[in-house]
Design a protein that fits this description.
By secondary structure, this protein is an alpha/beta fold. It folds into 2 domains: 87 residues, 3-Layer(aba) Sandwich (Rossmann fold), CATH 3.40.50; 124 residues, Rossmann fold, CATH 3.40.50. The protein is built from 10 helices and 11 strands. The strands form 3 sheets. The protein has a 6-stranded parallel beta sheet with strand order 1-11-8-7-5-6. The site of 5,10-Methenyltetrahydrofolate (GUE) has 18 residues, from helix 2, strand 4 and helix 10.
Length: 286
């Protein structure tokens, strides 16, 4: 039996068409959701993602400003850019593409973003609100994963979810959102002893490691749902995930492809957060 493909591309299209309707409703009130993407340096992968975000914004009738600066851009200058965006009423969302050059303190930069415009969900206020189950901008990749599970009627309640990776932007919040949906959650990371011992007990396996074809079928419990967050290049330079897709196809019950799985959902959730921010501006006076 071959696993069911979890189609992130199709699911993200569906979500984006719903977003487009709401963008149109806002337009009738003279509001255009605006996202500012700040990109420092010339990491080619970052450029691809950022272009993707801009294209999607425009397709949905949203405004997207790309602010590009050289690798040598100073921390103080960046903080000033953010302060200006915080005060710009036409900007509803601010995304600073990570990673930042080594001379810039990432935490300081995230802290400078107005939590009301924190569409990445990386600000400690957003993280804290998410942790205690209050309203917050949810981090896009973990939120996208939850939407995929929902779309495929996979209820995490009572399941054992194993998350490989504990970064602040993917692994850690992914485990939290699964916990909120009543999964029993195990985190694994580079210091985990005998990884397969854990992953073979996973009903839902989330891999956010960043190593090409890291997981073969010996890591997978028969019938498991496999969510592959990894974005890697294989030996031929082709985009691939952490999971050896072909190898696990007969073991897993569901699997996300790379590309076409989690990635497109991340972008869709970013658009949704930006829209939500613009909609909130209507009901709140500041
Ligand atoms: N599809 C999408 O939308 C997105 C995809 N990505 C991709 O997801 C991947 C992860 O991203 P990110 O979380 O930012 O990456 P990080 O490098 O920040 O985190 C990687 C995690 O994997 C763990 N790890 C590394 N080696 C092993 C190992 N041998 N066994 C078990 N765990 C290990 C690390 O452990 P430790 O903490 O101990 O170092 C760390 O927690 C990347 O490929 C990235 O490109 C990222 C964001 C969005
Ligand atoms: N502040 C910040 N926020 C982020 O959300 C953020 C970031 N920094 N830094 C980098 C990571 C990575 N990330 C991806 C988003 C979309 C795809 C995506 O669309 N992937 C497509 C393929 C893209 C391609 O063809 O290259 C897919 O999987 O189908 C991938 C990766 C967001 N990130
Ligand atoms: Mg840095």
């Amino acid at each position: 039996m071959s696993a069911t493909l979890i189609d992130g591309k199709a699911t993200s299209q569906k979500i984006k068409s719903q977003i487009a309707v709401r963008v149109e409703q806002l337009a009738q009130q003279g509001i255009v959701p605006g996202l500012a993407v700040v990109l420092i340096g010339d990491n080619p992968a970052s450029h691809t993602y950022v272009k993707n975000k801009k294209k999607t914004c425009e397709a949905l009738g949203m405004r997207s400003d790309l602010l590009e600066f050289p690798e040598s851009f100073g921390e103080g200058e960046l903080l000033e850019v953010i302060s200006n965006l915080n005060n710009d009423p036409e900007i509803h969302g601010i995304l600073v593409q990570l990673p930042l050059p080594g001379h810039i303190d990432e935490f300081k930069v995230i802290l400078a973003i107005d939590p009301d415009k924190d569409v990445d969900g990386f600000h400690p206020v957003s993280v804290g609100n998410m942790m205690i189950g209050r309203e917050a901008f949810l981090p896009c990749t973990p939120h996208g994963i939850m939407k995929l599970l929902e779309e495929y009627h996979i209820d995490p309640a009572g399941k054992h979810a194993v998350v490989i990776g504990r970064s602040n932007i993917v692994g850690k919040p992914a485990g939290q959102l699964l916990l909120q949906r009543d999964a029993t959650v195990t985190y694994c990371h580079s210091r985990t002893v005998d990884l397969a011992e854990y992953t073979r007990k996973a009903d839902i396996l989330i891999s956010a490691v960043g190593r090409a074809k890291f997981l073969g079928k010996e890591y997978i419990k028969p019938g498991a749902v496999v969510i592959d967050v990894g974005m890697n290049r294989d030996e031929n330079g082709k985009l691939c995930g952490d999971v050896d897709f072909e190898d696990v196809l007969d073991t897993a019950s569901h699997i996300t492809p790379v590309p076409g799985g989690v990635g497109p959902m991340t972008i869709a959730m970013l658009m949704e957060n930006t829209l939500l921010s613009a909609e909130r501006g209507l009901t709140e006076t500041k």
